[in-house]
Amino acid sequence: MELGLDVRKVGSHSVVDVKGEIDVYTAPKLREKLIELVSDGSYDVVVNLEGVDFLDSTGLGVLVGALKRVKAHDGSLSLVCTQDKILKIFKITGLTKVFPIHSSVDEAAGGAA
Amino acid sequence: MHPVEIAIPAGTAYVGIVRLAVGSLARAAGFDEERVDEIRIAVSEACTNAVLSNEAAGSSEAIVVGWSEEADRTIVEVGDRGATAEAEQGGVLDSQGFSSRLMMSLALIQELVDDLAAEPRSGGGTTTRLTFSRP
């Protein structure tokens, strides 16, 4: 099982396009990528979940960890997600109150403070 | 359908295999696609907790997933050899007020099943029983 991770710049934001399943096996790869971005000075990050088929509690933990890291640098972490089955995971765990969730990368990169 | 038992090595790489199998079993049992997704999430979380529980307890024993169907419900049992969930979870909230991974996992499982039970497993560990009412 592979997790696709592509990073691109949209304005001042670093966008991570994630493809595949984020679970206990693949989440460490996402964690490493997000740590690497922050270490390299990217503090405004957008994680695009539109290509994600599955997200579990480990993936949520990684996103929360990344949010804490960017906040420590007065940065931001926003998500892009329109899939009901993924949004449901954020709703059940109460994380819709924690992450700005947008319907497109442009909206996330433009609107995130 | 006869009961199905799947044993996976206690490694994180194998949880995805359970999701694949459970997706097929749930579809064959007549659940709609939305419910199939929910069952995959709940069982995947239970397996993840079992794998991590075995790892924490230093056990390399297989994780056993049992799938059985009764007249109006499907029962999925996940057996591990780890410590109890209470013992491994540690703090419920971290210093910044975020839930631990395990708390989020349990919230997901509880929301997505129709009934949840956990009991000590003979020989050590825990059997987690997830019940899904069938349409």
Draw up the topology in text.
The complex is a heterodimer of chains A (113) and B (135).
Chain A: E1 3-10, E2 13-22, H1 27-39, E3 44-55, H2 57-71, E4 76-80, H3 84-92, E5 101-102, H4 105-111
Parallel strand pairs in A: 2-3, 3-4, 4-5
Antiparallel strand pairs in A: 1-2
Helix pairs in contact in A: 1-2
Chain B: E1 4-8, H1 15-28, H2 33-57, E2 63-69, E3 73-79, H3 85-89, H4 101-112, E4 115-120, E5 126-133
Antiparallel strand pairs in B: 1-2, 2-3, 3-5, 4-5
The coarse silhouette of chain B is globular
How many distinct helices of chain A? 4
* Known CATH architecture of chain A: 2-Layer Sandwich
Portion of residues in beta strands of chain B equals 15-25%
Strand fraction of chain A: 25-35%
Tell me the domain tally of chain A. Answer: 1
CATH architecture of chain B: 2-Layer Sandwich
| Oligomerization status of the protein chains | heterodimer
How much helix, percentage-wise, in residues of chain B? 40-55%
User: What is the averaged pLDDT score of chain A?
Assistant: 95
CATH superfamily of chain A: STAS domain
Question: Radius of gyration of chain A, Cα only, in angstroms?
Answer: 12 Å
CATH level 1 class label of chain A? Alpha Beta
CATH topology of chain B: Heat Shock Protein 90
β-strand number of chain B: 5
**Name of the CATH class of chain B:** Alpha Beta
Tell me what you see in this structure:
The complex is a heterodimer of chains A (113) and B (135). Chain A has 113 residues and is of the alpha/beta class. Chain A has one domain: STAS domain (Transcription Regulator spoIIAA), CATH 3.30.750.24. Chain A has 4 helices and 5 strands; from the N terminus they run ββαβαβαβα. Chain A has helices at 27-39, 57-71, 84-92, 105-111, and strands at 3-10, 13-22, 44-55, 76-80, 101-102. Chain A is globular and about 30 Å long. The model of chain A has no long low-confidence stretch (mean pLDDT 95). Chain B is α+β, with helices and mostly antiparallel strands. Chain B has a single domain, classed as Heat Shock Protein 90 (2-Layer Sandwich), CATH 3.30.565.10. Chain B is built from 4 helices and 5 strands, in the order βααββααββ. In chain B, helix 2 (33-57) runs antiparallel to helix 4 (101-112). The longest helix of chain B has 25 residues, at 33-57. The model of chain B has no long low-confidence stretch (mean pLDDT 90). The interface between A and B is medium-sized, with 19 and 26 residues.
